[in-house]
């Protein structure tokens, strides 16, 4: 049972997920909900504390997101961060927010007047991270100003009696050097939260829930070999054993050795009944001559559904379908735009109009928590730490039309890249690293001969949730090794280029 919940109300801030993750790092369960959540619903959630996130709007805008001021009377400790603090100030009697003469972006020193509440044991002049154009002009009745910076008069405000706090800086980012301690003070000292969120307890509870839900019915799972669907099926298997059948569709667009490895792990190490469908021919035939990326995705999605439905019929009375949906797929965000971009990714090509009841045992978890569950369940490292891989697979990493020859070139180059990244000890540290085969050729010289071959594009990015990503500054020696090996070992390739674009403006995949 989760007794302690911390509710993060999201006003569309770029760090809302990060706030929730920071709370969970203290082994306290946190959930993100839209700022529109009603007081009735908040009471039902019954959180031990509430955090109001930052957000891109100004509280002075007419259409700025607001909360019902009754929230401040619930007798629940509240921390407002940046926009959240300004909202707090402008929603309560006596409080006022103004446009600052000078915005404050980046590092600032916190001048602490009173080491109370949140600021207990925090050193004066500690570095905090600011990002705001508005500031609190006057605090609501009952609040004290307990810290300022050179630019911002009210950097931390507190109503100690009511346990309402506002911080103008972002305690959730690492650039706020004592951010963790400040959040710790808020959660454990002010809100009396308890650290009762552990992955072992989570597994036991989910196993019971799944047993209760499924009873003696049959369950199927579309397994892709990725972390999420693998962990979801291992968890469901723990609960209902052979009542679960996994369906693994090999569309021929997987990486070198991947199909074999997934089959081996699931049937040999876990004994999970697995239907393997060799769909290579079918998918390639359907993709023949198709160059448009969206068209490729549609064809793959459609074929995937067809194969899956055909195979599902063979599993008697399967009433339930397991999906590896994770928390970042389902967050009901204040930022509607971000929510829609994500929502397409979790379905993994499974039909939405299927007549199944869903089991989504990872719905409440972030990716790093899913990996922890995988480890506790004993899944091997090569599954738990597998980098995310898109449902349409290598089809969207071959620019232009796809054929067996190009697939084989890309698989070889990609395998070398993965091996070198692993040997350099960087595989886990990087969100995704992969090769892309473009639809062009260039001139080279090898031995004394002219070559006219494909270039290969190397892409490596760091990310927390794939919504934004930075290109990785791979060491030159490593890039040199990768380049040498690929041009020497894959004869159709005579040039290697490195993609040094972040997301935005690029996306992670090329198509
Ligand atoms: P982009 O290219 O949009 O990708 O920056 C963000 C993340 O999503 C993965 N991706 C997909 N995953 N089906 C999936 O299951 C898809 O159609 C798909 N397209 C992109 C991509 O690998 C990255 O992790």
Short structural summary:
The protein is 33% helix and 24% strand. The chain is built from 15 helices and 19 strands.
List keywords for this structure.
19 strands; single chain; Rossmann fold; binds xanthosine-5'-monophosphate; 15 helices; 24% strand; 511 residues
Question: Would you mind describing this structure in some detail?
Answer:
With 511 residues, the protein is of the alpha/beta class. The chain folds into three domains: 186 residues, Rossmann fold (3-Layer(aba) Sandwich); 186 residues, Rossmann fold (3-Layer(aba) Sandwich); 96 residues, GMP Synthetase, Chain A, domain 3 (2-Layer Sandwich). It is built from 15 helices and 19 strands. The longest helix has 21 residues. The protein is globular and about 75 Å long. About 3% of the residues have low confidence. Bound molecules: xanthosine-5'-monophosphate. Xanthosine-5'-monophosphate (XMP) binds next to loops.
Largest sheet: 9 strands, mixed
Give the strand order of the largest sheet, numbering strands 1, 2, ... along the chain.
2-1-3-4-9-8-7-5-6
* Poorly predicted sequence stretches spanning 5 or more consecutive residues: 336-349
So what's the overall shape? globular
- What is the domain tally? 3
Beta-strand content: 15-25%
Average pLDDT across residues?
91
* Extended strand count: 19
Please report the first level of CATH classification, the CATH class of the largest domain: Alpha Beta
Q: How big is the Rg? A: 26 Å
Which fold name corresponds to the CATH topology of the largest domain? Answer: Rossmann fold
CATH architecture of the largest domain: 3-Layer(aba) Sandwich
Quaternary form? single chain
**Ends distance:** 43 Å
Total number of helices? 15
Helix content: 25-40%
